[in-house]
Amino acid sequence: EVQLVETGGGLIQPGESLRLSCAASGFTVSSTFVTWVRQPPGMGLEWVSVIHSGGGIYYADSVKGRFTISRDNSKNTVFLQMDSLRAEDTAVYYCATNYYDTSGWFDPWGQGTLVTVSS
Amino acid sequence: EIVMTQSPATLSVSPGERATLSCRASQSVSSNLAWYQQKPGQAPRLLIYSTSTRATGVPARFSGSGSGTEFTLTISSLLSEDFAVYYCQQYNNWFPLTFGGGTKVEIK
């Protein structure tokens, strides 16, 4: 079964850092892209970042310079390092991929991990 | 950035009725348009990709149409499990990928 499991969320103060993990099973993270999408409480979906199979990395302008995506092929896991966190980064963070081809639609998604930035 | 606009924001429909959801792109996305369903406390679930191709396991009562800048998701006869929020997403331009604001389908 193809599955993604996010961990690492929690309550954190503004300006601090947090690292999210997205552990994959049923496929190899280096063979396709893995993306992060976030959803603030009660709001819609916002694309955050992607790492492609060839290593290409891209970010939304809202997180560029503060967030870093990476992967560990030996652990079959993708990470999102989030620095200089702000209240507006509060959201459920989902990782997702396209198991079927390289198009930019997402299936499957993980269950999400909640990040709350508050003093 | 391609802006995706969904309408209406909320759609009140009785079970068994047809629901028609709209999604408009600020510029052409060709047929590179996906639809997702999200229920409270759950991750989004892919319904449709490439404008009109149903994802694995998605019932035939869900259909997608359109091209360019105007797209539609139709649910032919609503069941109780279809009441949820629906999002469209363009993937014609990767950077950034963008979602619509969502349409909540509620019980009338």
Low-confidence stretches of chain A: none
Q: So what's the oligomer here?
A: heterodimer
User: How many DSSP E strands of chain A?
Assistant: 10
Q: Roughly what percent helix of chain A?
A: under 10%
- Count of helical regions of chain A: 0
Number of strands of chain B: 11
- Sequence of strands across the biggest β-sheet of chain A: 2-10-9-4-5-6
Unreliable stretches of chain B: none
Q: Beta-strand percentage of chain A? A: over 45%
Class from secondary-structure proportions of chain B: mainly beta
Query: Outline of chain A, from the CA principal axes?
Result: globular
Tell me what you see in this structure.
- The complex is a heterodimer of chains A (119) and B (108).
- With 119 residues, chain A is mainly β.
- Chain A has strands spanning 3-7, 10-12, 18-25, 34-39, 46-51, 57-59, 67-72, 77-82, 91-97, 113-117.
- In chain A, the strands form two sheets. A six-stranded mixed sheet of chain A has the order 2-10-9-4-5-6, with no helix packed on it. Chain A has a four-stranded antiparallel sheet with strand order 1-3-8-7, with no helix packed on it.
- In chain A, a hairpin with a 6-residue loop joins strand 4 and strand 5 (46-51).
- The termini of chain A are far apart.
- In chain B, the strands form two sheets. In chain B, strands 2, 4, 5, 6, 9, 10 and 11 form a seven-stranded mixed sheet that branches. In chain B, strands 1-3-8-7 form a four-stranded antiparallel sheet, with no helix packed on it.
- The N and C termini of chain B lie far apart (35 Å).
- The model of chain B has no long low-confidence stretch (mean pLDDT 97).
- At the A-B interface, strand 5 of A face strand 5 and strand 10 of B.
